Amino acid sequence: MLTASIFLNGLVFGLILAAPAGPVGILCIQRTLSEGRLHGLLSGLGAAVGDAIYGIVAAFGISAVAIWVDEHKIGLRAFGSIVLLALAARTVFGRQHTTAPIVRGRVHTGSLARDFASAFALTITNPVTLITFASLLATFGLTNLIETKARAVALVGGVFIGSLVWWLAIALGANLLRPMVDGGSGNGSWMRYISAAILTAFAAWALITAQLML
C-alpha cells in the first residue's frame, strides 16, 4: 500500500513539475499547431524523460550527480538559454508546414528526434527542477520513506507518467486549435512570431538569473 501511495505522490509531482507555463510548454503548443500533434507529443515526451531523470537523482539520492548539477548550474542555465535562442530563430526562419492546409494523416517525421532532444535539453539544463523535486519530497514527508529500490522506482514512474499525461493533454488540446491557425489564414505566422518572442524572453531570463548566481 505504501508503494502505491508513493506512486500516486509521484503522479502529483510529475503534474506539478510539468504544469507551470515555460519554454517547453510554448514549444509543445507551437509545434503541435505548426507540424501536428505527434511533434508536440515528442516534445512533451522529451520533457517527461528529463523530469524522470531528475526524479531518479532525487529519489535514489545520487549525491554526486546532485552536487555536479549544483556546481554547474550557471553553465547549465547559459546552455539552456542558447538552446532557447536557437529554437526561437528556427521558429521564425525555419521551414514551416502551416503554409498549406492540413493534410490528414501526413506526418513530417524528419524532425521528430530533434523535437524530443531539444525539449529534453531544455528540461535537463534547468537545475530548478531538481530543487523543486527535493522540496516536494520534503513537503509531502517522503524523504525518509524512499528506503527501497521498489519505492524509488514507484516514485520515478509516477513522476514520468504524471508529466507525460500533462504533455499529452497539452498536445491534444493544441491540436484541436490547428484549423484556426492553418490553411493560410495568417494566424500561423503570428503564432510563430509570438512563440519566438516568448522563447527569447525565457532565454534572457535564464541568462540574467545565471549572472545573479555569480
Question: What's a concise summary of this model?
Answer:
The chain has helices spanning 2-18, 23-35, 37-59, 63-71, 73-93, 112-124, 128-139, 149-176, 178-181, 187-212.
Description:
The chain has helices at 2-18, 23-35, 37-59, 63-71, 73-93, 112-124, 128-139, 149-176, 178-181, 187-212. The chain has 214 residues and is mainly α. The protein has one domain (2-212). Helix 2 packs antiparallel against helix 3, helix 3 runs antiparallel to helix 8 and helix 5 runs antiparallel to helix 6.
Q: Keywords for this structure?
A:
214 residues, mainly alpha
Which percent range describes the beta-strand content? under 5%
The count of helical stretches stands at 10
Radius of gyration: 18 Å
Instruction: Tell me the number of strands.
Output: 0
Biggest sheet record: none
Q: Which segments are poorly predicted (pLDDT under 50) over 5 or more consecutive residues?
A: 97-108
- What integer is the average pLDDT? 75
How helical, in percent, are the residues?
A: over 70%
